[in-house]
Amino acid sequence: MDLIANILYDTIYHSTPVILLVIGGVYAYKANVLNIAMEGMLLFGAFSSALMILSTGSLFYGLLFALIVNIFIGLIFSYFGITRKGNVIIVGIAINLLTSALAAFILKVKGMAIINLSEQVDIASLKVNIPLIKDIPFFGDVLSGHPITTYLTFVLIFVLSVVMFRTKFGTYVRVVGENEEAAKSIGIKVNLIKYSAVIVGSLTAALAGYNLAIERLALYTNTMSAGRGFIAIAAIYCGRGKPKLSSIYAIIFGLAKALAINFKLFAGPISGLFEAIPYLVMVIVLLMASYLDNKNSWKRGYPNE
Amino acid sequence: MNIIETKNITKKFGIFTANDSITLNVKQGDILAIAGENGAGKTTLMNMLYGLSKPTSGTLHVKGQEVSFNSPLDAINLGLGMVHQHFKLVPSLSIYENVLLGIEIKKEFKIKNKSFSLPFIDKKKEIKKVQEVADKYKLELDVTDLIKDISVGSQQRVEILKMLYRNVDVLILDEPTAVLTPQEVDDFILNLKELKAQGKTIIMITHKLREVMELSDCVAVLKRGALVATLKTKETSEKELSRLMVGRDVLLTVSKNHKKVDTEVVYKVTNLETKNELGKKVLSDISFEIKKGEILGVAGVEGNGQSELAKVLCGLMTTSNGNVIYKGENITNMWPINLRKKGISFVPEDRYVDGLCLDMTIADNIIAGNHWNETYFKHKLYQKKIINKERDNLKEKYDIRISDIDGNVSSLSGGNAQKIIIAREFSRNPDALIISQPTRGVDVGSIEFIHSEILKMQEENKAILLISSELSEVMTLSDRIIVMYKGAIIGEVDAANSTKEELGLLMAGIKEEA
Q1: Min CA distance, A278 vs chain B (Å)?
Q2: Smallest CA–CA separation between A112 and chain B, in Å?
Q3: Cβ contact B414:B441 at 8 Å
Q4: Which residues of B touch A294 (CB under 8 A)?
Q5: Can you name the residues that pair with B416 across neighbouring β-strands?
Q6: CATH code at A114?
Q7: Range B2-246: architecture per CATH
Q8: Contact yes or no for B151/B203 (Cβ under 8 A)
Q9: B125/A contact by beta carbon, under 8 A
Q10: Which chain B residues contact residue A299 at CB under 8 A?
Q11: What is the DSSP string of B18-63?
Q12: Is A104 within a domain?
């Protein structure tokens, strides 16, 4: 029972940053902008919040700084990819490479290998226990005791879903993605909508970075994003840009990660291999999703041939 | 009163002059037709009226005021609305959502006398308001239907509704009838007359002279970017207009002698079926045969399975059921290269996607699909001299006009690009030809040439399948015509003894029980 509760708790724990990336990233996807810079945006969020907290000691300033930095990154991506019509893949890769290079440079100047915030941040105190729920056996162990951003994340899934399908902004994002000419002919400012869609993603990426570096570990290292940005892209594609469905794919990743970590303890010498499991699971999920998508295609070169 | 005046409007793209000093007046309440060949600058001119592009020089006056549009929104606010040739609708949204794009009605709540708007969209109110406008102009639409579920004719009415809802006084229509069945065209003409009766001014771009004659009060003819004439419709004729458009007398229809065809069946299709990505049948139970020296026409409103049929027959899609028999041999689901080797040629529907490689030279495109041929690739090496000679021969024979002989295909006009495909496919001496939309977006002069080439192939006893959404094309060229509706063959008629109305009914899915 304890093991299952642990696994479920860890699932929520590990899903959170990926869900955040997904529910913001779907906006760029729906606006037909391929944002592969999410990995870099996640790392920028983590780094800038860690750096700010290191110098000010304030969590709030850390988060605020991360949000501001990521708006800036979103603007850079949009300027080159949308206004200047550059290849968004190249722009995205540039931002991804820039992140770790810039972070490494600043760390080098400061004479540090990583940013350790154990003095500024007390992780245990950041965990919020929900009254009433925390006393329910089993469920209390799973649902309670997460940092505040985690709760916010699960609320945001629904909020951003409603924004996507019930509001003017969400409608415009979908229209721009589906038929840009239609949007233009009616006077919708297509580029403005695309910029906004990218920036929604960069803002949730800032939150994800804050969650990853500050609330969970009180630590920044240059490799800590560990491909989550790309996992999020995979989840968005599998979920076809629907916020709730895409989040489910993010949770599958979280579950795989939680399983790997909990069973690693019993694996002895091969425990290192378990690190690969969540990524393998995502490859298999992607394969299955792609097979199901094309199951009915009778085009040359597809399964039915 | 002139509602729109353009004064010496010129538009240049680099060194190319798309519109050359055009001065045009549009009277309020008139229907003005703008006629001209493809590339004559009709759409460029309209885009400037609608704020999609800005003139290089010259001025535009609306209701007596000089104006300068930065975006379509400025034009709409001044009462100008445009319906584009390619509809600008979002398929996954409903009619009312498309109509209200950009001017959504938000939910409100009232406290005492003040009303506050919420960020959410008020769907009920939207539906009611849009339906009212649709009914006022007798457009016969249920505004809650999704765009992807309604016919092309209805989609066009949605485009018009979109503009009417915004209270425009002037409607600009770009090639409005290109995608409609003959009956839909008749309804459409009635719709426009109703709009005129309600005081709207209409500018219609078209190259179909019948509609110009039937509908318009005045007609302006453009040729190579210049306005060559403005005429009262009553005082002109189709013949005069076509001469003004092309600059010479044009055979509007090629003449065909309906000779008796052979009895030998060359190409036979039985019970063909295939599905789309969603698992929905897009071809069901298609069977036909083509005899030696026969042209079988396939008519139908676009999107009723013709594209899929062409793709299956060209080997770009596979079948879930059914057979294709060629000269007694089963060739179902063979790869295109094998089909070509057996002597079948293809003219694909979209020449820039499936027919040509835009970034390669004309010579490379001339031999495309023929790379297995030892003549061009001796010991697998590219025989430049031989290939270039072949290109020069075909260029001469098929009257392809090229400014840079070693340039890429992307530098050619639509008509000449299509002629490259025609030259490549027809010169291989095939026994069967699958031809899709051979004259789409091609100028009048080239249409005449391509039609006569197709008839020449028939003279040489080829079996030809001609798929076209241009009804007059199918009717003049074919011997027999099958009509496709919702992926199936709904009827077959003899081309010599059929009427446009008869085919139009079949295209709309109405089958008279004999």
Answers
A1: 30
A2: 47
A3: yes
A4: 277
A5: none
A6: 1.10.3470
A7: 3-Layer(aba) Sandwich (3.40)
A8: no
A9: no
A10: 311, 316-318
A11: EEEEEEEEEETT-EEEEE--TTSSHHHHHHHHTTSS--SEEEEEET
A12: yes
Q: Is residue A300 part of a domain?
A: no
Segment A175-186, tens digit of pLDDT: 999 988 888 877
Among the CATH numbers 2.60.120.10, 3.90.105.10, 3.40.50.300, 3.30.390.50, which is that of B265-507?
A: 3.40.50.300
Tell me the chain B residues in contact with residue A184 when contact means C-beta distances shorter than 8 Å: 52, 72, 88
| Cα angle value A162/A163/A167 (rounded, 5°) | 105
Interchain proximity B317–A185, CB inside 8 Å: no
Give the minimum alpha-carbon distance from B276 to chain A in angstroms, rounded to a whole number: 6
* B79-104 pLDDT, tens digit each: 888 888 778 888 888 999 999 888 88
Chain B CA closest to residue A303: B318
Contact B84 A185 (CB under 8 A): yes
- pTM equals 0.78
> How many domains does the structure of chain A reveal?
1
Instruction: For residue range A236-262, list pLDDT tens digits in order.
Output: 988 888 999 999 999 999 999 999 888
Substitution target in B159, B275, B277 with the highest count of A β-carbons within 10 Å is: B277
- Same CATH topology for B2-246 and B265-507? yes
Domain-by-domain residue ranges, chain B?
A: 2-246, 265-507
Are the C-beta atoms of A65 and A48 separated by less than 8 Å?
yes
Closest Cα in chain B, distance from residue A31 (Å): 13
Segments forming the whole domain that contains residue A192: 2-294
The residue behind tokens 């003409």 is: B189
**Chain segment B30-71, per-residue pLDDT in tens:** 899 998 876 678 888 888 888 888 889 999 998 888 888 888
- Which residue in B375, B376, B362 sits closest to B424, CA to CA? B362
Confidence class for position A42, pLDDT limits 50, 70, 90: very high
Q: Report the residue from B82, B90, B319 with minimal CB separation from A175.
A: B90
Residue B323 DSSP one-character state:
E
